[in-house]
């Protein structure tokens, strides 16, 4: 199978790093319990322009200092040996180098990497069979096209449900969904 894999809050814990640096920038002290929005910057009352200033200043530190989620590296290693892996992240191109270095540092293998916001179009163009992602808007877009998504569970995506959305709260569950979808594809 050709598997698309998101990074932030799917392979790695982005929330902790964003909270740390956004708290420094704002003087606030938000915690994980405050996070109920995919767009974390909105919790700080920033508009997109204000977010960009802070993100451009701290983005490299945020991305470098994010930790892999439990079992993500191990499961991705297994998947890499059997499947085509494309990393698909909506991070801006500005952070391509730190992203590639981070993946290397954590020994995460992949075949391709794409930094793009329109993940649905990219998955159509590259014939990706399934996307693993935490973004509720991506899950909804994919569901409309009947394309499967493995939705990595986060507090802000709990309300998304659809027949083509496979919810996973760990990488062990991600792996189980991949095995199921693989069997279904061969059928
Ligand atoms: Mg994400």
From TrEMBL:
Task: List, from the UniProt record, the residues annotated as the active site of this protein.
Answer: 6 (nucleophile), 8 (proton donor)
Say which enzyme class the record assigns. hydrolase
What InterPro entries would the database entry show?
5'(3')-deoxyribonucleotidase, 5_3-deoxyribonucleotidase-like, HAD-like_sf, HAD_sf, Nucleotidase_putative
Q: Which Gene3D superfamilies match?
A: HAD superfamily/HAD-like
Which residues does UniProt assign to the signal peptide?
none
A GO MF annotation of the entry reads: 5'-nucleotidase activity
Say yes or no: keyword Hydrolase present. Answer: yes
Give the matching Pfam families.
NT5C (PF06941)
Q: Does the keyword Hydrolase apply?
A: yes
**Keyword field:** Hydrolase
Q: Which GO terms describe its biological process?
A: deoxyribonucleotide catabolic process
**EC code:** 3.1.3.-
Similarity section:
Belongs to the 5'(3')-deoxyribonucleotidase family.
Task: Write the protein's name.
Answer: Nucleotidase
């Amino acid at each position: 199978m050709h598997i698309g894999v998101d990074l932030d809050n799917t392979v790695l814990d982005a929330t902790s790093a964003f909270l740390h640096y956004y708290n420094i920038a704002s003087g606030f002290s938000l915690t994980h319990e405050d996070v109920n929005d995919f767009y974390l910057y909105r919790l700080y009352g920033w508009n997109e322009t204000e977010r960009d200033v802070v993100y451009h200043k701290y983005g490299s530190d945020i991305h470098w200092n994010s930790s892999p989620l439990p079992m993500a590296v191990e499961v991705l290693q297994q998947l890499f040996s059997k499947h085509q892996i494309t990393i698909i992240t909506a991070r801006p191109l500005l952070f391509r180098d730190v992203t590639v270095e981070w993946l290397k540092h954590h020994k995460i293998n992949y075949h391709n990497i794409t930094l793009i916001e329109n993940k649905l179009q990219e998955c159509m163009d590259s014939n990706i069979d399934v996307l693993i992602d935490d973004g509720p808007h991506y899950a909804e877009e994919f569901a409309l096209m009947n394309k499967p998504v493995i939705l990595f569970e986060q507090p802000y995506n709990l309300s998304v449900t659809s027949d083509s959305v496979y919810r996973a709260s760990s990488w062990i569950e991600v792996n189980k969904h991949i095995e199921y979808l693989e069997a279904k594809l061969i059928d």
